[in-house]
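Request:
Um, any thoughts?
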Amino acid sequence: MSYTDQDRLIAFAGIYQAAYCVRQIARHGTVDTRIMEPCIYSLFQIDTPSVAAAFGPPGAVASGARQIVAQLTAGSNGGPPRDQELLKYVVTLIKLEGALSRRPDMLATIHTGIEALTLARDDRPLLDPGLLASLATIYSDTVSRLSPRVMVSGEPLHLDNKDNQARIRAALLGGVRAALLWRQVGGRRWQILFSQRQLLESARGYLASAVLG
């Protein structure tokens, strides 16, 4: 199956959206549920008819796409500089997915764990604290043991909160899932450096279609 630049943009925006959730929770103790839910939703999607469907309804990763536009236009016309913290999370998640792809044992553990959660979820909402805690455990038992480690910066008050810790780890797992999808549809790290104009056009196109939809 062939994939488009828009497919790659949507998956890449999923990584950015997960990274944004991590930063918001770590720094402010909260994040908009409409931004967090697609990151968690994607973890339970194994076979989807399209890349976009992996994250939910149309425009589900609009927040991530906005972050991409902000990053690629940073510093222009006197605007704010590039968000290095957010970029650090995105790059680390991509590297972690690469490390995870070489560990079939961990991939199997994650698949089994999420499959079990899917069967036991019933009607619990995606951001149910118990569900997020279970996803956080899956992350701790697998991805967190790989290198590089994600070094989360934020306010100690929020980072010490157990529910926030679970939400951050669940969001990171969602970010790794998005990075896996990005690689599967042809995403490569060199594109971040050498295809920025195409990436920016795709992000703006996605945002325009999300508004029209």
Q: What stands out?
A: Residues 5-212 form a domain with the YcfC-like fold (CATH 1.10.3890.10). The chain has a mean pLDDT of 95. The chain has one domain: 5-212. The radius of gyration is 16 Å.
